[in-house]
Amino acid sequence: MPTLELTTLIPDRTSKEVLDFCLEGVNFPKIFPERVTPLGDIDLSNLRIEAGRQFRFRHWMFNLIPSNWTVTIREVGDTHFVDEMLKGPLRAFRHEHRVAAGEGGTLYTDRVTYSAIGGAFSEGLLVNGYMRRIFEARHRNMLQLLS
């Protein structure tokens, strides 16, 4: 399965501040570069990410193609949390969010392991580039919001 890993230094923020920002549900659509709509009775303004919780949302790929996701939070710790797709547009998707002290701030890392329907062919043709674009934009958005 392909793995994408990106790390960004968030200056002048502690690891706790960065992780707390990520754990607040209201920040998810702010970070995401494409439109995201919660499904069901989710109130993002009153949502804290916790282990065992499941969420449904619609992600508008390329801001045009609706794609429904069901994810579960597998782990939450002092320096990380992990979400995993239960149902959605990919064969598999696991996303690790990690924070660590860095010089002058916090290193934030996204590590995404995924498998596309259609296998290596569709991954090479479309999915790998799409994932890189989405996660690079997420890092730019986080940097802007937390700076």
TrEMBL record:
Q: Which domain of life is it from?
A: Bacteria
Gene3D superfamilies the UniProt entry points to: 3.30.530.20
This chain belongs to which protein, by name?
Answer: Polyketide cyclase
Originating species:
Pseudomonas kribbensis
